[in-house]
Fold this protein.
Amino acid sequence: MTDVSAALRDAAQRLAAVSDTPRLDAELLMAHALGVERQVVLLDPSRFVVPADFASLIARRMQHEPVAYIVGYRDFWTIRLAVAPGMLIPRPDSETLIEAAVEYFRADGPRRILDLGSGPGTLLLAVLAEWPEAHGLGIDESEKAVDWAERNADHLEMGARARFRVGDWAAGLDGQFDLILCNPPYIADSEALMPDVADHEPPGALFAGAEGLDDYRRIIPDLPPLLAPGGLAVLEIGHTQHMLVRELAETEGFRVACRQDLGGRDRALLLTRA
């Protein structure tokens, strides 16, 4: 019988070769194998016996398979989102967009929200969790992503407030939204990525031309008629793209502010009507 604490130490040592967060990965995989939450394992690991399939989960991670795909979910902001291979995995840096929206609207909140490139519902469902009176629309080019977003909305009991549909960014949309959120692809085609990302996540959700700006050039010109007076549009950016994307937004008449992520890197541009 293997001690859970010892198994976690051994797994973390092995995972250090493939992960920046080896101990966390080991703990999440152990909790998944045991069918409990991670904090339960950490609170009293002596309660448990190492499950037989823990070794196979570690082996999958050693092959660079993302932890989120292995366990089937990713925690984001205050919610848990089911994810599956072939869709963009929610990342902590994207919580910067939620923080910006919460600070802008405070308790009153927006009433109508648009999420462009909604993936598994990440940004839209996170803000709907903040403001129970709000409703939102999520657009994604992937039918699979839309299907999983709808599942997540139903699981979070937000199905009546969140709609998702397949679309091409803002093409064909009308009406106005108090809050527009967008995490588009922004990686340059030539940029090398870690195997976890490059070999598993969908390229169409990551790469955006030679400079990583192709989708901003399509999205930003469509935003002015969609943003309600007093509203806010928040775009995630790569940490070197602040000035380039700012110029695109200012050309369309927006006032622009920038917000940094927890690492102090430029991460979100806040667009308001000038």
Q: What stands out?
A: Strands lie at 73-76, 79-82, 112-116, 135-140, 162-166, 177-182, 227-236, 254-260, 266-273. Residues 88-273 form a domain with the Rossmann fold fold (CATH 3.40.50.150).
